[in-house]
Amino acid sequence: MILDPSTHHNLRSRKRLDVLFGRLCQLAAGLGILILIIFLVKIIVDGVQNISWAFIVGDLSQRPSRTGIWPAIVGSLYVMVLTALFSVPVGVAAAIYLEEFNRRKSRLSSIIQLNIANLSGVPSIVYGLLGRFLFVYFFGFKTSIIAGALTMTLLILPTVIIVTQEALKAVPQSYREGSMALGSTQWQSIRLQVLPNALSGILTGIILSISRAIGETAPLIVVGAVSYVSNLPKGLGDSYTVLPIKIFDWANESQEKFHQVAASAILVLMVGLLFINSFAIYFRARAKAKK
Amino acid sequence: MTSTQTDQAVIAGSPKGSGNLPHKRVSVHLQRQIREGAIKAFCALCALLSVITTITIVYVLLTEALPFFTKVDFKEFATGTEWKPTPEPGHYGMLPLITGTLMITIGAGLFAVPLGLLSAIYLAEYAKPRAKAILKPALELLAGIPTVVYGYFGLFFVTPALKHVFPSIQSSNALAGAIVVGIMILPLVSSLCEDAISSVPVALKEGAQGLGATKAETTMKIVVPAALSGIVASFILALSRALGETMAVTLAAGSNPILTLNPLKGIQTMTAYMVSTSKGDLEHGTMKYWSIFAVGLVLFAFTFSMNLIARKLVAKFKLNYQ
Question: What is the ipTM metric for this complex?
Answer without folding.
Answer: 0.90
